[in-house]
């Protein structure tokens, strides 16, 4: 059972009907929105759309306080309220708090929890980003944070321009950094930690579009109050119709492909340090963290965008692969976008349900593989993405004892893994004791929409101290190898690179094929060179001279010792002996 996904859908469910919008041949995949199965107005169909850009921007800033009641031994939602600040008694006294806090551009050097700079890099030239406008211009659910409780302000997404830089639709780029708290309180255990659980950020190429004929672009809204018949006290209505984000009424931020020859560098100034581990959709990323005056953190991430194969498919429930059918029907609670409901029941057989993946764990990875079977192992096209996210503590916990012990208590960011795979496991690579390696699973359709092979990439940046902790290494230099192992156990040919600089270990693999290979990272460190054992100085045979006196006289002949220098890499050892010899692995200098 997908516990994390079910919990999210139970509290954050999008009650949207599918719009009358089709992705025409001349529209990029970035604007695709699923219309439902070919069979209309009949329940018992399930579809899937796997592309995580939508999941990031569907909700804008908001804070909601939840109250619970106990019924039949279970804690259930009783009532919910949208708040303009935590000081609102409806949130201050709540059992649980949920919030999305979007960060706005910094307006002064003293401001924190904001976007410090955005830079585009093309052909080696840096182009400073210019803040153009907030989008939408207003949001009635923005809220004021609380510095003492580590609650950031909830602001507006921002649009930026870069001199001379355009995309297929225009020249505006949306920057969407967000802190998220999903709460953990119930009626008998109120929430006590209000700091965000996760941070995610995306950069998108957009244009502002007005309503075309027959299309309804909704504004972001929350319906909060008494729990309804299905036990939910709050519903978030957000983006659809292929919009990247909701705009002002009747307007939509329509997404376009990001230029592939451009890297973006984003600097976030924050009083809430980014810790844990990150994952996402970035090409050849670099990260830097520095501490400013007052203990504020300046987090910098630079990368190019990646093209991610998008999976979209529908199937009649009775014709699903048996494993997928058993898995979905065993869920006591489920959610998604209701394309159609017959109003006669509440089972999967009464609806047409479009599922989105909002978690990247072992459970969803397994389900994704079943959906690849439905999709005939073929994608509908590639979507360009520039997205990064932090992990929650529960996701790190799932990575195993060794990694958990090295990463969970860290007060700093310990690493980031990025890939263009349609599905992956977001936690740090698992430690394979048998092969003594870090193993990372990725998956995408084997073929693209044109029937050609999808080509994968993978990047891992790991804090050097964290790597040494995982492997029990010393401070000596680390070497590594990266290999790609197909699902059948065979090795794939890929271009790999490994380096260590500025306290970070960088590894990459490019050019491999899907469906579900494992990226295997083997870290090694040569054992410290043994301390040479000096060759004992031979004792000369004494010469005894007979004399009339009974007491012998012993004369020792001195032996000259020699010192040589032995070199192994950057290590130099001196060996002194009568016949000095360099230790194994060392060469005489």
Relative strand content: 35-45%
Separation, N- and C-terminal Cα atoms: 63 Å
Query: What coarse outline follows from CA principal-axis ratios?
Result: globular
Instruction: Outline the low-pLDDT stretches.
Output: 1-24, 542-559
Tally the helices. Answer: 8
Helix content class: 10-25%
Count of β-strands: 38
Overall mean pLDDT: 83
Topology:
Elements: H1 3-11, E1 45-50, H2 53-57, E2 62-71, E3 74-82, H3 89-92, E4 96-102, E5 114-122, E6 125-128, E7 130-134, E8 158-161, E9 172-181, E10 198-210, E11 221-224, E12 234-237, E13 243-246, E14 251-256, E15 262-270, E16 276-281, E17 283-291, E18 297-304, E19 306-316, H4 322-329, E20 337-341, E21 351-356, H5 362-374, E22 381-385, E23 387-390, H6 393-397, H7 401-407, E24 413-419, E25 423-424, E26 430-432, E27 437-443, E28 455-463, H8 464-471, E29 479-485, E30 491-492, E31 495-501, E32 504-513, E33 518-524, E34 543-544, E35 554-555, E36 562-568, E37 571-577, E38 587-588
Parallel strand pairs: 1-21, 16-24
Antiparallel strand pairs: 1-19, 2-3, 2-4, 4-9, 5-6, 5-15, 7-8, 8-9, 9-10, 10-14, 10-23, 11-12, 13-14, 15-18, 16-23, 17-18, 19-22, 20-21, 24-28, 25-27, 26-27, 27-33, 28-32, 29-30, 29-33, 31-32, 34-35, 36-37, 36-38
């Amino acid at each position: 059972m997908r516990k994390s996904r079910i919990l999210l859908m139970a509290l954050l469910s999008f009650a949207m009907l599918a719009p009358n919008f089709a992705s025409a041949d001349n529209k990029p995949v970035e604007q695709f929105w699923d219309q439902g199965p070919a069979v209309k107005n009949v329940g018992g169909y399930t579809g899937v759309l796997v592309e995580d850009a939508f999941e990031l921007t569907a909700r804008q800033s908001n804070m909601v306080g939840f109250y619970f009641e106990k019924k039949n031994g279970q804690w259930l939602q009783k009532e919910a309220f949208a708040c303009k600040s935590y000081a609102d008694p409806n949130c201050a006294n709540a059992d649980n708090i949920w919030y999305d806090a979007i960060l706005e551009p910094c307006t002064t050097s003293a401001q924190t929890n904001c976007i410090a700079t955005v830079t585009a890099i093309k052909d080696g030239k840096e182009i400073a980003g210019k803040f153009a406008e907030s989008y939408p211009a207003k949001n009635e659910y923005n809220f004021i944070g609380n510095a003492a409780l580590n609650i950031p302000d909830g602001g507006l997404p921002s649009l930026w321009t870069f001199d001379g830089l355009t995309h297929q639709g225009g020249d505006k780029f949306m920057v969407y950094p967000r802190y998220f708290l999903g709460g953990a309180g119930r009626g008998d255990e109120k929430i006590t930690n209000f700091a965000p659980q996760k941070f995610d950020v995306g950069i998108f190429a957009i244009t502002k579009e007005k309503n075309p004929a027959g299309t309804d672009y909704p504004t972001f809204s929350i319906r909060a109050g008494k729990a309804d018949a299905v036990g939910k006290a709050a519903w978030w209505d957000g983006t659809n119709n292929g919009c990247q984000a909701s705009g002002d009424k009747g307007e939509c931020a329509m997404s376009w492909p990001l230029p592939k020859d451009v890297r973006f560098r984003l600097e976030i100034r924050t009083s809430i340090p980014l810790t844990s581990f990150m994952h996402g959709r970035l090409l050849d990323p670099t990260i830097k963290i520095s501490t400013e005056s007052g203990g504020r953190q300046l987090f910098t991430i630079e990368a190019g965008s990646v093209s991610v194969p998008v999976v979209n498919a529908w199937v009649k429930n009775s014709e699903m692969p048996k494993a997928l059918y058993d898995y979905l029907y065993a869920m006591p609670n489920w959610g998604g976008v209701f394309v159609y409901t017959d109003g006669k029941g509440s089972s999967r057989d009464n609806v047409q349900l479009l599922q989105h993946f909002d978690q990247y764990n072992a459970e969803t990875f397994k389900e994704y593989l079943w959906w690849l079977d439905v999709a005939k192992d073929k994608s509908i096209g590639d979507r360009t993405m520039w997205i990064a996210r932090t992990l929650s503590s529960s996701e790190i916990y799932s990575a195993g004892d060794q990694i958990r012990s090295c990463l969970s208590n860290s007060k700093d960011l310990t690493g980031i893994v990025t890939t263009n795979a349609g599905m992956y496991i977001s936690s740090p690579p698992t430690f394979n004791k048998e092969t003594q390696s870090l193993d990372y699973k990725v998956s995408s359709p084997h073929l693209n929409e044109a029937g050609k092979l999808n080509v994968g990439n993978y990047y891992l940046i790991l804090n050097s101290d964290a790597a040494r902790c995982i492997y029990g290494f010393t401070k000596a230099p680390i070497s590594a190898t990266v290999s790609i192992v197909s699902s059948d156990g065979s090795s794939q040919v890929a271009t790999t690179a490994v380096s260590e600089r500025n306290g970070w270990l960088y590894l990459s693999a490019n050019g491999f094929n899907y469906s579900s290979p494992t990226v295997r990272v083997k870290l090694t460190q040569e054992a410290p060179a043994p301390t040479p054992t000096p060759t004992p100085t031979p004792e000369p045979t004494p010469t005894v001279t007979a004399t009339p006196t009974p007491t012998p006289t012993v004369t020792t002949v001195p032996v000259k010792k020699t010192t040589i220098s032995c070199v192994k890499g950057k290590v130099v050892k001196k060996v002194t002996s009568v016949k000095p010899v360099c230790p194994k692995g060392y060469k005489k200098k």
